[in-house]
Protein 1
Amino acid sequence: MYLSVVIPVYNSERTIGPLVERLQACLAERAFEIVLVNDGSVDGSERIGQHLANQYDNVQFISLRRNFGEFNAVLCGLNHTRGQYVVIIDDDFQNPPESILTLVSTAEAGGYDVVYSRYVEKQHHWFRNLGSWLVNMLTTYSIGKPRDLYLSSFKLIHREVVEEIIKYRDPYPYIDGLIFRVTRYVGSVDVPHDARAEGRSSYTFRKLVGLFLNVFIGYSLWPIRVFTVLGITLFSLGLLVGLVLLIGWLTQQFVNPGWVLVLWGIGTGLGLQFLFLGILGEYLGKLFMAYSGLPPYVEKERKSE
């Protein structure tokens, strides 16, 4: 098997069939497979996925018992791939299937482990563009991503990297974070980006916050180190200010407005404590969930010919 195409499916009953048909046409000269992962859709996506798996010998269909999230669905799909190269593509037709060949040729020519798509003109909603910008800025510092690399969902991954990614067993996968834990041989290539063929994006403020916290807390020690340095800095300043106040009181150079300083100290101290407790709580919560035995996904059904 030369190429595997993983498609996380969510409420795409109108697009998943035409997408598979178009993949069959544009990849006909390659030995390839398609892995559809239904992530708890509430429309007819499951029925259509079952039909596609029965219709085509090279289509696998996996249906999850509930909506676990896009990254969890992708991780499930990666576990069922066999191709030398694995491409992840969305189900909304914003990425033309023909661009898969562009990713493959770039990987072959450059010897890359991973090739990300780079959009010349993005057709996402402004809110999703803002969220992508924030996450990309964060990942530059948290996982060591190059500043000029855009972490798109449409990407190609070499088999050897896939084998490392699927070793992840915790319930909070972040595919790009796992990639950069494995390799730095990463490239990118320009591809077209079209408007959505059907429906609207499921990208919400809640998902943006969840992704931001997952990247911020789950894939780097950078946050805790920042606050450690901040704590050391504030403690040192506190010692310095205390020394100045003590010298001023001993030399009677100025009168210490005690009640103002007490209120300021109490307010600042409580705010700092709550901040530290929040960060610590995120880490402890992640550790608890990771070691609680919760799987990253649960399969309800798998059909393949």
Protein 2
Amino acid sequence: MLLAEDLVLLLTDDKTGRPIVDQLRRDLVLSGAVVHQLTELGRLRVTGRDEELRPGRLVVADGSPTGDDLLDATLERLAGRKPEKPKNALGGIGKGLYQRLLEHLAARGILRLEVDRVLGLFPRTAWPAVDSTHEDGVRRGLSDVLVVGRTPTPHELTLIALLDAVGQVPAVLPGSDVSRRELRRRARAVAEDGGFAATAVRKALDDALAATTVVATSQ
């Protein structure tokens, strides 16, 4: 299962089939997950010093297919773009990503598409859970790490770092005996080793919220 697929399951309400987080955070964290996975696979890297390109730019290291169409589409998109800071690259990656992930999960029988109409006029889609087995296992793993104190697997560490970057750790672990504040503290401690993608998500979110504040206060 892709990191981004796990995040979709965690951030989509099983019963209503609708996201529990706003579109900005959702798209940024999914983009960060894809970038992280492509980096792990050796397809992307961040430039260092003593290179022709400026340091800290996200570049394609290997353009060969990964075998996953979602990852390959992102890789192709980045290959056609000018190298830029990771936080700036996330916006273009996220467009349409959530929808494609939902469709993939539905095709595998994990979610299902429901369509109704608001006020009988406006179509609205939802993607409630059909089979929550995998998602439940992911949640148990995150709970073992953040509530019980088990050492995270690399996959769990990255999930926690990405969820922490958009402030959603307490939301995906409801009903815990640990307070929301303490969950956030523990997640932040784990997230220190979460890699550059989670940091990029946090910076991109901070920039977007700051820009929104400037616009709001100038009106």
Protein 3
Amino acid sequence: MCYNNTPILSSRQRPHRLVCGKWINALLYADDVVLIGNRSNIQQLLNRAKEHSYQLGYCWNPSKCIVLQQPTSQSTNPLPLLYLYNQPLPTASTFVYLGIPFNASGMINNQQLLQRNIASALTVIILPTYYQ
């Protein structure tokens, strides 16, 4: 999301996703959206998403949202609750986006992806009749 009056975030607040000299704070594909942030700016990004929805006359569905957080930090250093439309968002340590499983660090979970792809392939394999 780009706004003409978006304040510049300090280097401490910026997410660590630099592409071609630009900070990436959102991935958008049709109605699937990922916000990328850290403790100091993610609520601000959620607030901007809410404002954007009001400006264009739509609403996000908070029940379909998830906040990724590493399992160890959930018990030792939990994130403060994050809100969208004054509704708290649930947390999880993994999430599937566009069919790709991600872990709480934002990395693709290769093992889970491999297992999902194997399971999918096995469901479509058709054995010749002489094997049945």
Protein 4
Amino acid sequence: MSLLSTMIEHNQQFVESKEYEPFITTKFPDKKMVIITCMDARLTELLPRALNLRNGDAKIIKNAGALVSHPFGSIMRSIIVAVYELAAEEVFVIGHYECGMTGLNPKSVLDKARGRGVSQEMINTLQHAGIDLDKFLTGFDYVREAVENSVDVIRNHPLLPNNLPVHGLIINPETGQLDLVMDGYADLER
């Protein structure tokens, strides 16, 4: 049985037995917060438990590295929607130690892409079209700096209010311990 078939079968049983009922909530985050964090599988259950979050408490946006790499990209759009349309009042950027984006090498990624069937011709076409694949596929050296940079992009966004607390934290993916990098309340007092 394929992974998809297994998932569909489980889902049918889940719905039929009404196991979804404990998770019913609204689209508005009860704790009025939006979290940008990494897609790392270790954080799927750990992060909500370490933060005492239940279903419906927060809008959680995940991507590789918890990065807000472009002020007008999809992550930033999601934050703006969460603030204005879904009543989020605070933003938390939560990176983690041992992140796969630390030291990510674009050459390695492109070598693996070629190994999976992406042609060198396609890579050349993208580069010729002005896409800087090296920049696009480069990670970061230090998670703390990555969190600080993402917080700065959010805090300085022209479409967000000046009184929006934007916090930066790093979580340990084994223990769930949080280290504070930037206190959004303190930054508002300056």
